[in-house]
Amino acid sequence: MGDKVRALHYLNQFFAGIGGEEKANIPVQVIEGVTGPGRALQQKLGEAGTIVATVVGGDNYVNEERDDALTAIKQAIQTYNPDVIIAGPAFNAGRYGLACGEVCRLAAEHDIPSVTAMYHENPGVLEHVKVAYIVPTSESATDMMDALDSLASLALRMGRGENLGPAEAEGYMHRGIRRDGLRDQTASVRAVDMLTARLNDDPFITELPIEMPETVEPAPPVTDLQGATVALVTTGGLVPKGNPDRLVRGGASEFFRYSIEGLTTLSSDDWESVHRGFYTNIVNQNPDYILPLNVMREMEEAGEFRDLYPWFFSTSGVGTAVAESKRMGEEMAQEMKEAGVRACVLVAT
Length: 349
Description:
Blueprint: E1 5-12, E2 29-32, H1 38-45, E3 49-57, H2 59-64, H3 66-80, E4 84-91, H4 94-109, E5 114-118, H5 123-128, E6 133-136, H6 144-159, H7 167-170, H8 187-199, E7 229-234, E8 238-240, E9 256-259, E10 271-273, H9 281-285, H10 293-301, E11 307-314, H11 322-338, E12 341-347
Parallel strand pairs: 1-3, 1-4, 4-5, 5-6, 7-11, 7-12
Antiparallel strand pairs: 2-3, 8-10, 9-11
């Protein structure tokens, strides 16, 4: 390894300046040197490091054509043989975060250190935090320069082969890895100190952080189901055959609505699941498995509820950020409320 750290940078099509969603399907390509936020990142690296090349991948392409995309990225890693790989920052862009995590996983397979940056609710964190060093960011690129500062600092140290300390000291997200080490005080003294601080409303940092899931109050029961319009929602990635709207297989940030007016069942000739989080063969043979239209029509005919809403909502639930889930749920609920829907059946995977 030379004195100057050689870095390979990964960006998606948007931050590389190629385009937005209309360019999300571009294959992986390599740009010599820097582009997009890589220019500022190079300034942060200064004379200590240089970005030798930038690997760019369309968000859809990397997630939907995963094998081909990873083969191309692997080729770039082998070609440039960098001292460190920097991915992103991805902030709260789900598909981008998943791609950055995959890049870091490939780096580990080649024994090359890597670092990325993203918002804590990005699905890339959930899937890759144990194999990648991830710097926390805000939801959007408004703190780009702060993120690049952190990326550059860690990248230089990792590229030189330095060992990093614990997450709270170095500024990356906890990876769920515990290592032996010595503390200045025994556990009993530290525990009493934390308890005393808590009782006095003084700040302290726990040694065993526990993130509790948000509690969601259930909706009140529908008192008159026979007079209710019922809607169907699925997170199983159910789409018309051929996926004309290009619903992503995971890490979704959008949903689609499709008409079921006049249909009594879903045919495998017309519908399929593009979800990447479960074995979809059974759904693609029988789409009613993930959206029970046939059973709902029978219940409708029997008068168990008034009628079925003529549209259903679909997205891919795997790896979806909590913030995106809330937003999509609110948008679905708003339409249903305006249409007089009293209840919905949510089919998850």
